[in-house]
Amino acid sequence: MKSVVAFIFLISFNLASAKIFLNCEFAKELGKNEAIERVYIPHWVCLAQGESQLNTSKLVNYPNQSSSYGIFQINSKEQCGKDKKGGFCNIKCSDLLDDDIKDDIKCAKVIFDRSGFNNWKSWQNRCKSTSTIDKNKALPNLVNCQYK
Ligand SMILES: *[C@@H]1O[C@H](CO)[C@@H](O)[C@H](O)[C@H]1NC(C)=O
Ligand SMILES: *[C@@H]1O[C@H](CO)[C@@H](O)[C@H](O)[C@H]1NC(C)=O
């Protein structure tokens, strides 16, 4: 009986820590970080859609032993630490899987300051404008979203 209760507790705990953001909700969370430039918010939403479908608990293990974590798919090779705080974000990777994405946003901004949006393949594939015709083609429409 005890183990059944523990099991149910574990399941509900896992559900509570995973979250799928809606575009506007995510844009608002980005807007709370004053270091994020407002004009880039649609780009951030677009790239996170591509990386994680805005799933905060997405974890992908690659054959090369590295793993990518959370809504921005931050990678353990250099960006975060697998067992303890580390990487150039000085954060523990597993802390990037919960539904509090303030730390994810902070780390994503550190990555952006080092290498720009090009760090993210999904940005290059879906969000980067390559010509004036498809300019901003995949960028989400956030006009009705009141982010600050
Ligand atoms: C979110 O990601 C987790 C971990 O990869 C996965 O188990 C879960 O099914 C995903 N949720 C949705 C709605 O895709
Ligand atoms: C491991 O593979 C992933 C996905 O292909 C890639 O993004 C990452 O840079 C690779 N890491 C290393 C250590 O080569």
Automatic annotation (TrEMBL):
Transmembrane segments: none annotated. Pfam families: Lys. GO terms for molecular function: lysozyme activity. This is lysozyme. Residues 1-18 form the signal peptide. SUPFAM superfamilies: Lysozyme-like. It comes from the Eukaryota. GO terms for biological process: defense response to bacterium; killing of cells of another organism. Keywords: Antimicrobial, Bacteriolytic enzyme, Disulfide bond, Glycosidase, Hydrolase, Signal. Residues 89-107 form the Glycosyl hydrolases family 22 (GH22) domain. Its EC number is 3.2.1.17. It catalyses: Hydrolysis of (1->4)-beta-linkages between N-acetylmuramic acid and N-acetyl-D-glucosamine residues in a peptidoglycan and between N-acetyl-D-glucosamine residues in chitodextrins. Belongs to the glycosyl hydrolase 22 family.
